[in-house]
Amino acid sequence: DKRIRDMARRIRARKQVIAQEARVNNVNRATLTIKQKALSSSATSGDFVDHLKNLGLNATDAQSTAERITRKRVRSESRHPDVELAKRSGSLAARATTVIRDRSQMGVTTAHQLASANKKKAIALRDMYAQGKAGEADRKILTKKPRHLFTGKRSNGTNDRR
């Protein structure tokens, strides 16, 4: 018990010394702001995987994720663009023919379920549609009246009602 307390006291003292050294080192230090792109370009996914391996961790998942996320390298100027387009035409055509699914039918298995869902939707929207009709405020003013009678804050019969 006494040994543990003594060890904890020494650890706390050492932490204080480290914090003080850091404060002294950071005072008036000239710093350069580095853009995020520059930071990311200097550190590679390989460095990250090596770091994980040094820590004794399994880095296969991290490596596959990093390879998936990292940007593809820009096509070099030496390659001919027509050759590159011919190579990619298959993938472009495949993407163009993908089926666009109706999202209103996702999660619905049978025609009976779909009919029931449509009926419930119509009932839910009925009140909103009824509210959407033109009311008194939406109608046009047919008889134009002189504006000078209705301007000003008071004195058009409101004095005795305030």
Please supply descriptive tags for the structure shown above.
0% strand, mainly alpha, 162 residues, 6 helices, extended
Written description of the protein model:
The chain is an all-alpha fold. It has a domain of 68 residues. Helix content is 55%, strand content 0%. It has 6 helices and no strands. It is extended. The termini are far apart. The model has no long low-confidence stretch (mean pLDDT 77).
Query: Biggest sheet, open or closed, and with what strands and sense?
Result: none
Shape: extended
Number of DSSP strand runs:
0
Please give the radius of gyration in angstroms: 37 Å
**Separation of termini?**
82 Å
- Spell out the helices and strands N to C: HHHHHH
In terms of DSSP E residues, the strand content is: under 5%
Uncertain spans = none
Mean pLDDT across all residues, rounded? 77
Number of helical segments with 4 or more residues:
6
Determine the fraction of residues in helical runs and give it as a percent range.
40-55%
Which structural class do the helices and strands define? mainly alpha
